[in-house]
Amino acid sequence: MTTEIKEKLDQTDEAQDENQETVSIRVEDLIVGRKINNPIYDSNGVLLLAAGSVVNSRFKQLLRDRNMPDVNIHNQDAAAVSLSAAFSGDSALDPGQGIFSTELTEKLDKLIESGSMFVANTGPAVRDSMVIHGCKGYDQEHREKLFEQQQEFGESLDGMMRGALNGDVPKGSEIAGMAASYLTQLTADADSVISAAAEAGKDETLSQHCLQMSLLGMAIGTELNLDETNVRNIGLCGLVHDWGMVRVQDKIGSWRRKLNPIDRMEVQKHPIFSLEMLEDVAGIPSVVPVVCYQVHEQPNGLGYPRNRTQNMIHMFARILNVAHCYVSLTTSREDRPALMPYAAMEYLLRQTNDKTIDSAPMRALLNLLSLFPVGSFVTLTDGSAARVIRRNQNLYTSPIVQIIQTADGKAADPMDPDNILDLNKSHHEIDQALPTPGKDEIDLSSELFDGQI
């Protein structure tokens, strides 16, 4: 018995000695196909991977299944299995330092760490002035104007991004004007504006991505009872937060594809590039750089560029992160088609469990779009096909829909008010979600979806 205890103590001492020679590496940073020369243990000294083994996808998934966001790697192996370690001055990459630091980011980091990022309303909540349309269709004439405006805003924003990259600094008032216009339209008919923006954004350019994020972020902020100034600032941040991607695109080409570790590192630098491009823009509220810096952070600490956790991420950034995830999932990439809106919503609800996204803005998004999002297509229990046109308060599974095709496949009259149904008051229910016509969308069961946002 004494010998057995001594052996266990010796093993524990060896494990502790081993831990002193290891560094913590994010599981997501491990490079598949790289060989380790030293064993990998968990915090209890249990062997996870033997010396001489090769890191593979199965090993990474095993660590995820064990809820291990980080793993201790021997100093001698760190640089070989992780670019984050390889590109740091020391083998151990300090997660607080992120990818790289500049004088500008250091100032923002000090502000963030001071804990002075609270949000307070100074006026009435925008939600109090929202017009609720109930079981009513869209104003088609107004909708056409929305499509035209979305196209114009996209071209204007693209010009601003390109100009800022080349030293031609845009005016902050021009950007703020877009956010103010969106706010006015949201209060008049949020459902119509959000669905029109999604349709107009089918060209999937960076500028349209920013426009959709801005609009959706403002709508989420409204749902969270923020006032006009706060909602407008969210919209402004959404419009400019990804400007640094223009610089990344020029270096690596399209980012909507499966990225290798080097390209992923370039993408993760874009918040800092955005800050540099916005530094000389006059009239930008002081909150904007902080939010743009943090949009891609995650409450669980696995975001970038600084691995911040929930309480160290600005509320506006957490809101825009949810908007970014939804827009990205419902947008096609080179390596996968877009997710169906229902599938995207279902996937994001799961992401709140491990705090990949913040639950409060996610709940607001659910209230805003419903489980079957505004603009998506469904079949009803009578066999007819319909389009979701409005949310129905907090009745997530019973939105307001417009019949577009009868059960026998005939087109329904779009002008007939009887074809607009409040599913909470109808004997019909949603039977299944459908892909958007002409968009080759997939659901979560598709092998083409790898879980990457």
TrEMBL record:
Residues 184-380 form the HD-GYP domain. It comes from the Bacteria. CDD domains: HDc. Residues 1-11 have a biased composition (Basic and acidic residues). Keywords: Hydrolase. This is Cyclic di-GMP phosphodiesterase response regulator RpfG. Its EC number is 3.1.4.52. Residues 1-20 are annotated as: Disordered. GO terms for molecular function: cyclic-guanylate-specific phosphodiesterase activity. It comes from Gimesia fumaroli.
